[in-house]
Amino acid sequence: AAHGGYVYFYSADLTQRWGEGAATKDQVFVQPPGTPAVGDAFLKAHEATGEQLYLDAARAAGGALVFGQLKSGGWTQRIDFDPQGTHVALYRHGRGKGRNHTSLDDDQTQAAIKFMARLDRALGFKDTAIHDAARYALDALLKAQFPNGAFPQGFTGPVVAHPIVKASYPDAWPRTWPNEKYWDYYTLNDGLAGTVAETLLVAHETYRDPRYRAALTRLGDFLVLAQMPDPQPAWAQQYSYEMHPMWARKFEPPAIAVLESEDAIATLLKIHRVTADAQYLAPIPRALAYLKSCVLRDGRMARYRELQTNRPLYMNRRGADYFLTYDDTDLPAHYGWKQPTRIDALEREFAAAQAGKIKPVLPAPSATDAARLAPAVREAIRTLDAAGRWVSTYAGERLVGQPKFAPGFRYLDSGVFNRNVETLSAYLAATRPE
Question: What is the distance between the alpha carbons of residues 316 and 173, in angstroms, rounded to a whole number?
Fold first, then answer.
């Protein structure tokens, strides 16, 4: 920990630290697998064991997030504790300066809110700094929801209202990147709908405030509106205020987006579990049938499908400039242009929902969970070294933050720590005597 917070990766001797790029000794990261994700792992360990040490570590992570909360209510990717540091932002408390842009990208603010709410409950709602930060962030999130139920990718304050209309195809769209402030528009990119829905669900379970459930249902209303009409009844990454698919980053064109479509379906299923309202199931059959038609020969999905033609659409680049292409033979390695699909799992969950077999939103641990977790528990125990660490060896795989490690480099991975500690904690909870 640094100031109670965490980064993604550490050299085995702890002299080097990385998140999205190298980090100083005074910088921690909010985006998972950073500070809130590690804090959540400690919180689960405390719940499973009762050990005060783990609650203290979670509380310290919460303190780091209190320091780094922006005046706009949420968090950005990195917190810099050095007043002269390169990534200082306009913090709600302290001597902050610079940007005040709360980010909903990549589960940044959402992960922080979920952890802070759970920590608040674990502390009996008695830590005023933690409680105040969680409720302040949730108030800001509610003010960032558009009247149609959508959320932007980020915000500095309450959003501006626009007419509520259904999604449709534009008459034409620019084939080159227009470099707009895409983060202000309606966003589904990088699982935003699912992570915001989970945040609102945790908030409602924690505080029993009806505003959070109402916001969740409005998000479901937006997903119904945002489903594109035939011939592509799925979802885009980003929508204009006219509800047309639009550009985001220079390699994210207006298109049907497979990952976001699957996330939209999963989110609608989650909202249906909470509300039992059939309107949130209605868009799913057409969407699943369409997505099944898009599976490539190798079983994966092209991340993008061109509007109306439905051709797999990719981006390539010359230097810093990207261009549209249908050719998938030599694509930039920094982005997931093809993705595995979870259509089968979504179909099973949809069939269960239709049959009235709605699983609990927060299921209790069971003996079935213990049996399922047992192999992962054995592996976690087997791979723990004598110093109490899980040490990873880099073999060329793509890692979050895309650090440039040499093959064979040994490092500590917060994601591995989080996964293993949560697995061990879940196993203890599932095998605890009555």
Answer: 18
Which tokens in the block code for residue 302?
Answer: 């092209």
Contact 401, 8 (CB under 8 A): yes
Average confidence (pLDDT) over 315-342: 91
DSSP 90-141: -BSSSS--S---EE-GGGHHHHHHHHHHHHHHHTTT--HHHHHHHHHHHHHH
pTM of the entire structure? 0.95
Under 8 Å between Cβ of 98 and 89:
yes
| Amino acid 95: pLDDT | 72
Please answer whether residues 304 and 255 qualify as being in contact, where contact means their C-beta atoms are separated by less than 8 angstroms. Answer: yes
Work out the number of other CB atoms within 10 angstroms of the CB of residue 8: 25
CA atoms of 170 and 63, how far apart (whole Å)? 47
Strand partners, 302: 338
Q: What is the pLDDT of residue 364?
A: 67
The predicted-structure confidence for 226-253, as pLDDT tens digits, reads as follows 999 999 999 999 999 999 999 999 999 9
Which residue, among 248, 29, 26, has the nearest Cα to 154 in the 3D structure? Answer: 248
